[in-house]
Structures are given as structure tokens and as C-alpha cells.
Write a structure and sequence with these properties.
alpha/beta; Beta-carbonic Anhydrase, Chain A; 5-stranded mixed sheet; two-stranded antiparallel ribbon; 6 helices; about 15% strand; globular
């Protein structure tokens, strides 16, 4: 085992404290505490007990477990930048109903979303300049990296939007119109208000 570890990584035999970041330490400590009180959660069934799924944004201010009252095993939560009905998000929803029995879906965007602060050209230009993290200034996005960057971002549909409510409508309709999504599944559209914690319903045409 030791010889394999040496081949895999020059750091494999070093103790964690020599190179663990503070964030990694915090996550592992939190996980240890969580696992110590795990109880019977290892017996939870694979299908979600409450038979619904949520598609929402990855924004750190959104906690679906809290704003939707979820416990482990209750529901599927699918997250991406913007909570968009991307090809992969729809793939997950199809698996969610076809193999795991969800019967209702929620599409939840939110106020003050970062997806409203750029467009495809802006992020592609920034990435072409460098792969370092850009910063938002009074004059817009500024890339402070030295490069090199990559033009590969120009091949990506970033799915940005200017209005969260309109994007919810677009995403609900995109999911409803997919040939692998049965008409019997209700799909609800909401905007989560980051200032109040409330879910605000978005009317979607039938």
C-alpha cells in the first residue's frame, strides 16, 4: 500500500495538518460532528419520501432545507448557476420522476441574482483575458488576472438573464415542453426573496 501511495502523490504519506486549508479542516470537523449524531439516517430509502423535486440556484444565501422545510430524505434538490432548466437539470428531473417517483416540481429563482450582472460576451471576454477571479467595480466587471486565458468560454451558453421572474417562466415552459416530461407533473414557479425569505409565486401560462 505504501508504494502505491508514493506513486499516486508525493504528499500521500504526509499528515493532513501539513497542507490542509482552514476551510477543509472546518468541513471535516463539521462532518465528524454530523456523523457522530447520524442515528438512523443510514436507513433512509433511496426515493425521496415527500415525492417532489426543487430546481434552484446555487447562491449561498438560499437554503432549500430551510425555506422549503426539508429534512434528509424528503426531496430532490437540483442546483446550478441561476437555477436554470439546462439540459443537465432536465436530465436530473427526468431521472427524478422516472426512476425515483417524484410527482411535483418547483423551479425557484431568486432576487438579486448574480446571473443578472453579466452576459455571455462579458464572461467570455473575462475568461479569454485570464482564468483568475474577476471583480465587479462601479464600471462593471474587471479582470485583474495576468493570463493566460482561454476562448473556450465562447462555446458555452451561460444561460444568463435580465429578469428572474421572466426566467422562471422560460424554465417552467422549457421543462413542460420537453418530450420526456409527462403532462401530469405539476411544475410550480417561484422567486425567492433574499431580503425576506419568502417564496413569491410566478404565474406561468398553461
Amino acid at each position: 500500500m505504501e508504494s502505491i501511495a508514493r506513486k499516486l502523490s508525493p504528499f500521500a504519506l504526509k499528515p493532513f495538518p501539513d497542507f490542509m486549508s482552514e476551510i477543509l479542516k472546518e468541513v471535516l470537523h463539521a462532518n465528524s460532528s454530523y456523523a457522530s449524531a447520524f442515528g438512523d439516517k443510514g436507513k433512509l430509502a433511496l426515493p425521496p419520501a415527500r415525492r417532489f423535486a426543487i430546481l434552484t440556484c446555487m447562491d449561498a444565501r438560499l437554503d432549500p432545507a430551510k425555506f422549503a422545510g426539508l429534512a434528509e430524505g424528503d426531496a430532490h434538490v437540483i442546483r446550478n448557476a441561476g437555477g436554470r432548466a439546462s439540459e443537465d437539470a432536465i436530465r436530473s428531473l427526468i431521472i427524478s420522476y422516472k426512476l425515483l417517483g417524484t410527482a411535483e416540481w418547483f423551479v425557484i429563482h431568486h432576487t438579486d441574482c448574480g446571473m443578472e450582472l453579466f452576459n455571455g460576451k462579458i464572461i467570455s471576454d473575462l475568461l479569454e483575458h485570464s482564468l483568475e477571479t474577476a471583480k465587479l467595480t462601479a464600471n462593471g466587471w474587471e479582470d485583474v488576472g495576468q493570463g493566460p486565458g482561454s476562448s473556450a468560454g465562447r462555446k458555452i451558453d451561460w444561460l444568463e438573464f435580465a429578469d428572474a421572474g421572466a426566467a422562471v417562466v422560460d424554465d417552467v415552459l422549457a421543462i413542460r415542453s420537453h418530450p420526456l416530461v409527462p403532462a401530469r407533473i405539476p411544475i410550480y414557479g417561484f422567486v425567492y426573496n433574499v431580503a425576506t425569505g419568502l417564496l413569491e409565486e410566478v404565474p406561468v401560462p398553461a
